[in-house]
C-alpha cells in the first residue's frame, strides 16, 4: 500500500466547476440569512414595542453601516432565491444534464448579479 499520496491543500490551484461555486454560494447565503434573521427579528421587536422604538430603528437604518448590512442580507436573499428556483426546476427534471447544470449555474450567477445591482440601486 502506498502511504505517500500527493496532497493538494492549496485552494488557489484547485479548479472547481461553476456548479460547485453556485452550490457553495447557495449554502453560504443560507447561513447568512439564518444569522441575519436574528438582527431582523430584533429590529422588528424593537419597532413594534413603541413609537420611540420605531423611530430608533428608523434612525439606525438610515446609517450607512446599517444600509450595508441590509444590502448584504438582501443580496443573500436574492441569490438564495434564484438558486433555490434553479433547484426546484432541477427537481422537475429541467437542467439535470451536465451541460444543463452548467448553463443553469451561469444563469443563476447572471440573474442574481442583475437583481443584486437593482436592489443596491433601490436601497441606496
TrEMBL record:
Q: Does the keyword Lipoprotein apply?
A: no
Regarding protein family, the annotation reads: Belongs to the cytochrome b560 family.
Q: Which GO terms describe its molecular function?
A: electron transfer activity; metal ion binding
Subunit:
Part of an enzyme complex containing four subunits: a flavoprotein, an iron-sulfur protein, plus two membrane-anchoring proteins, SdhC and SdhD. The complex can form homotrimers.
Cofactor details (free text): The heme is bound between the two transmembrane subunits.
Q: Tell me the pathway.
A: Carbohydrate metabolism; tricarboxylic acid cycle
Quote the subcellular location field of this record: Cell inner membrane
Q: Does the keyword Cell inner membrane apply?
A: yes
What does this gene product do?
Membrane-anchoring subunit of succinate dehydrogenase (SDH).
Under InterPro entries, the record lists: SQR/QFR_C/D, Succ_DH_cyt_bsu_CS, Succ_DH_cytb556, SuccDH_FuR_B_TM-su
Q: What Pfam families has UniProt attached to this entry?
A: Sdh_cyt
- The organism's taxonomic lineage, starting at the top: Bacteria, Pseudomonadati, Pseudomonadota, Gammaproteobacteria, Pseudomonadales
The entry's keywords? Cell inner membrane, Cell membrane, Electron transport, Heme, Iron, Membrane, Metal-binding, Transmembrane, Transmembrane helix, Transport, Tricarboxylic acid cycle
Topology of this chain in the membrane: Multi-pass membrane protein
Q: Which domain of life is it from?
A: Bacteria
Q: Which residues are noted in the entry as heme-binding? A: 80
Q: Which GO terms describe its biological process?
A: tricarboxylic acid cycle
List where the protein spans the membrane: 24-44, 65-85, 105-123
- Protein source organism: Ventosimonas gracilis
> What protein am I looking at?
Succinate dehydrogenase cytochrome b556 subunit
PANTHER family (alphabetical) = SUCCINATE DEHYDROGENASE CYTOCHROME B560 SUBUNIT, SUCCINATE DEHYDROGENASE CYTOCHROME B560 SUBUNIT, MITOCHONDRIAL
